[in-house]
Each structure stands twice: as C-alpha cells, then as structure tokens.
Protein: Peptidase M23
Organism: Desulfitobacterium hafniense
Amino acid sequence: MRKKIFKYSALLLICFVFVLSCATFSFAGYDLGLPSPVSSPVNAGYLYGEKLNSSSTYGHMGMDFAAPIGTSIYSTYVGKVITKGDLGGASYGKYIVIESTHPYYTNTKFYHYYCHMSELSSSIQVNTTYPAGTYLGLSGQTGNASGPHLHYEIRMGANNWYAQRNPEGFLGRSSKDNYAALRGKVLTSSGSYARAIRISGATKGTDVNYGASYSYYVMENGSAFPDESAYGLNYYITRINPGSITLNYNNGARTSTVSASSNTDTLVPSVSLP
Ligand SMILES: [Zn+2]
C-alpha cells in the first residue's frame, strides 16, 4: 500500500512539475521585457486593436506614443536594420524596421517598426546590426498621421500584415514597475477566439496614461485581427493598478473578478461569451 502511495505521489509530482514547466515556458516565452522606444506616454485613445473611428474596418496594429516632434527614439531590442525608408505622405512615412531573434524563439524572427519619424539617424545603415538602445532618429508626423506620435509595431514570425502582435505584451512588464498585469482569453460560444469585443474594468497607471478598456476587431476581409492567440491568449492588459478587478467583457455579456497583485502577471480564467 505504501509503495502504491509512493508510486502515485511520484506520478503526481512528475505531472505537477510538467504542468509547472509548461506554464513557465509559455509565460516566459512571451516576456521580452522590452524598454519603451520613447520617453513619451502612450496614446490612451487609440490602443492596439482599437478602431480609429466607427467607420474604420480594421483595428490599430501597433501602439502610439504621444511624442512631440523631435523626441529621440531608441531601438527596443538588438537586431539588424532591414528597412530605412521614406514613404512620403503615405502610410508609415519615414520609418525603420529592425529584424531580431529572441532566445525564447530561436527560429522566429521579430520585426520592430518605428514609424512617422521626422528624421532618420544618418548613422543607421541597412543590413547592419545594432544593440538595444541605439538612437534611431526623431519622432514626427510623417506619412498617414493625424498628429505627432511614434507608431511602434511588432510583427512576429513573418514580416507581413497578419503577423502583428500587441506590443504591450512585449514592452515594460508588471514584474518591474509595481503595477499588475492581466492576460487571458475570451472565446465565443462555439469555442473560437472572440473578435470585435471590448474589455473594460481595469484601471491603467496614470503615469503612462493608457486607456482603461481594450477592443479587438476583425479585418474588412473577415480574417481575424492579429492577436496573441498563438500563445493561448487573446488579450493582455499591462500596467494596471493592483487590487480586486472586475473585468467586463463585451459590454456586460460576461464579467469576471480577479485579484491582481503588483509585479505579477495574473492569468484570468477563460471566459466564454453567451
Ligand atoms: Zn499607430
């Protein structure tokens, strides 16, 4: 009997360690802990996934920092400059793309986009690798921009439209800033990843002026808006005030109350919409 108990205990322990290591891997794999590319606060009114206005047919594919024209921009991660371009009055305007690889994803390329700049540093050369924190140039309002800001975008796995990821999941993390972070997934009643929904209830730190709500939309062609579903989650809300938080999904369709601690990433149990 004792032998049997020992056997089962050992088996349980192995399972526990396995589950723990899986959880740790998926957690750590997502945590690049990148610094902000610019000292300016995030534009709370137009977060990743938000529609620009009610007639927009797709969501915002990056993060906007409210940087006045002429603010210094620095690379967030080591990598090779693959584009140093100027699209004139269209799209990204003056922009730089840096390709990099992260130790957690040795076979996966990351593409960091720094857009709408007013000036690209003359010392930056294409096909040259630079360390994190390299001066890239000055922020501006070039290209398709309604005001001065830095549009920062991350693509993962491929350098195309559908490979965009929410930079919030890669930038400054709760483990360093005394804020809390929540991550999780919202599913439809049929079990697929929910789109075009708003999540509210978390309060962001005022020092960075994030918005308090989050939205996901579908693209005009019906394809899912790029998100973090590859990692088993489809929302990520960082730098929020700790405490008991009631998240509200899709204007009250569901709520879930979680305890968010400072310097901790809390995984919220999955929510299925009615
Ligand atoms: Zn933007």
